[in-house]
Amino acid sequence: MQQTNRLRPFFENLTFDRDDNHMVINFGPQHPSAHGQLRLILELDGEEVVKANPDIGYLHRGMEKMAENMIYNEFLPTTDRMDYIASSSNNYGFALAVEKLLGIEDKVPRRAKVIRTMLLELNRIISHQFWLATHALDVGAMSVFLYAFREREWGLDLIEDYCGARLTHSAIRIGGVPLDLPEGWTDNLAKYLDKVERAVKEDYEALLDENRIWKMRLENVGIIDKEMARSWAVSGIMLRGSGFEWDLRKEMPYELYEELDFDIPISDKMDSYGRYKLYMEEIRQSVRILRQLIPMYHESEPQLMANVPQYISPTKEEQMTQNYSLMQHFVLVTQGMRPPVGEVYVATESPKGELGFYINSQGEPYPYRLKIRAPSFFHTGILQDLLVGCQLADVVTIIGSTNIVFGEVDR
Amino acid sequence: MNKEVIKGSQNYIPVEIEDYPTTGWQKFKQVVRRSLGKELFVGLWVVLREMLKFNIHTVQYPEEVLPLPSRYRAVHKLLRLLESGNERCIGCGLCEKICIADCIRMETKEENGRKVVSEYSINLGRCIFCGYCAEVCPELAIVHGSRYENASEQRAHFVLKDDMLTPIDFLKEQKEFDGFGAVSPNADKLIKKTPLAY
Ligand code: SF4
Ligand code: SF4
Q1: Which H or E element spans position A321?
Q2: Neighbouring-strand partners of residue A359
């Protein structure tokens, strides 16, 4: 056993060369720019990183195990706590996986689909704004942080009007959505979209695009070449920032994405600046998608939940008027739905990347195994290669640029 | 569904980013351009513009509070029937079952041949305000209220039946909850007569 003291730190499973004058430091888990509970063990040669080791698990809550002891409906609010910046996209990924397992994804009513797509895109905008705010703050641009948070707050207000919560939305149900949009919501949404579009162009991009500090800190920093991107299985903007054409909304369309017009930006710069441009462009595209969805909403029928009595509880109106519905509701709440035996893997494009849910069902009301493929986990892993050779000051920029959220990494 | 699927167009487009300077001369040109250009002042101008709008979004809490939407999920309420003033809760226990955080506890007893709920408490220290209790309740009895300032000196304040139940004198002011579990506003139109689906 190694004798540990202040000059000879001891790390499990890690050996550092202590003969030269390299320094080993802990970055996090309480570091303000480590984006949550990330702990990086860095070996430094002067200012240069020689070896980087991300250490995770400080926010582990055992969600996958929890899922095995909960009925499917109960697990949905738990998924809120994964990527808490865009919780509806987690809700959606899980709900879609269960729907595929039950084979009812075609029975989801049109209006529910429109509302879900709206929520997903709204979440994307909010998540990207949050990313921009924290990333800019890490680099030192305080005013961008304030402006981005201001617009994000208005977006949260919209979600709050819809589902009653700002952070942990639980706004999507297996088989549909729980509520219709409140009156006047789409008008507020249209106003919000105008504000966002203006803010992206006149505030964020005006402040950052040509800003020399921003450019110096981001250009050619954190270069992920194609080989590295592939071998670390990165997804989302990290992948498109390396020039790959891969977006699940186009490649494996779900919800209404097939019917919508939008562009998916890619960049071959492979660095943080390229990724920043992608984020800005994606916000614009989300605005474009949401504008197309508003008329679709008004054209749709008012039904909100799939009509599958075997799995999905009847509506409140039916419960309060019809005896059989009420009995069915009792059975579904106390025992839970029993999906057929089988397994399913469903991936969706969350704001961070490919968010996948794997469910193995043995016909019980509880999943036999539930595995979550969270994009941030892979984006944390890549730090091991990405940080080597860069300066200590760039570590913060690169972590910011990967957009990792620790609720999702540790689960 | 036979409806023809309208295909939208989704394209990959490269974003336009100027090439970074590589040679010394290009770098020199960039330095000159940046120093002579207005780049340094754009940031100042944007901040000044936002400031001059006097469109201030800071809320001086607690003097000012933001209005809450009617669907907001905060500390729960137990409602009463509007006509008779009786408690709506029938003690069915669905909320206790579905609660993810396992924080609802209730006791029921029999009184004059009817089941009455003698104790009902929600441990707000554990509640995650997911809204599922309101959603499953078949009687619209447990709903979310709008009290969100939760600081208290004792855990016992979190939260007993008497605190949640609408006081009988205030029955007139009792409001229905719009959020999770509410009946849809056009409910009377949607109800179908024959319960065949189940
Ligand atoms: S809101 Fe959720 S956690 Fe809180 S009491 Fe209701 S079901 Fe339980
Ligand atoms: S679900 Fe409603 S009626 Fe049933 S016990 Fe809970 S509050 Fe009472």
Answers
A1: helix A316-321
A2: A344, A370
Q: Whose CA is nearest to atom 6 of ligand 2?
A: B95
Residue A1 in this model has a pLDDT that exceeds 50: no
Q: By the 8 A CB rule, do A336 and A312 touch?
A: no
- What residue of A is the nearest CA neighbor of B132? A74
Testing the interface with A: which of B12, B41, B57, B104 to mutate, by most A Cβ within 10 A?
A: B12
Identify whether B66 is part of a domain: no
CA of B133 from ligand 1 middle (Å) equals 5
Give a yes or no: residue B98 inside a domain: yes
* Lookup: tokens for B142: 């447990």
Ligand nearest to the CA of B121: 1
Q: Is there a contact between A76 and A98 (Cβ–Cβ < 8 Å)?
A: no
Report the relative pairing of strands A39-45 and A48-55 from DSSP bridges: antiparallel
Helix (H) or strand (E) holding A102: helix A87-102
Question: What Rg do the C-alpha atoms of chain A give, in angstroms?
Answer: 23
Please give the C-alpha separations between residue B112 and each of A258, B115, B180, in angstroms, as whole numbers.
61, 8, 33
C-beta atoms surrounding B188 within 10 Å: 9
Q: Is B46–A207 a contact, with Cβ atoms under 8 angstroms apart?
A: yes
Interface predicted TM-score (ipTM): 0.77
Handedness of CA A24, A30, A35, A38 (dihedral sign): positive
Rounded CA-CA distance A243/A399 in Å is: 20
The residue assigned the tokens 């993810």 is: B100
DSSP class of B91: -
Interval A158-187 mean pLDDT: 87
Reported as a single tens digit per residue, the pLDDT across B86-96 is 778 888 888 88
pLDDT tens digit sequence for A108-130: 888 888 999 999 999 999 999 99
Which CATH code of 1.10.645.10, 3.90.800.10, 3.40.50.2300, 3.30.450.90 fits the domain covering A63-373? 1.10.645.10
Peptide bond into B62 cis (omega under 30): yes
* β-bridge mates for residue A342, sequence order: A361
Residue of A nearest to B35 (CA): A212
Structure tokens given for B100: 């993810």
Residue A208 and residue A144 in contact, taking contact as beta carbons nearer than 8 Å = yes
Q: Which helix (H) or strand (E) holds A82?
A: none
DSSP-derived pairing of the beta strands A39-45 and A23-27: antiparallel
Q: Are residues B145 and B177 in the same domain?
A: yes
Rounded Cα–Cα distance for residues A312 and B135 (Å): 13
User: What is the maximum alpha-carbon separation in chain A?
Assistant: 79
Cβ count near A47 (within 10 Å)? 10
pLDDT digits (tens, 9 = 90+) for A305-353: 888 888 888 877 777 777 788 888 888 888 888 888 888 999 888 888 8
- Phi/psi for A49 (5° steps) reads -80, 125
How far is it, in rounded angstroms, from Cα A53 to Cα A40? Answer: 6
Residue pLDDT, tens place only, A61-75: 888 888 888 888 888
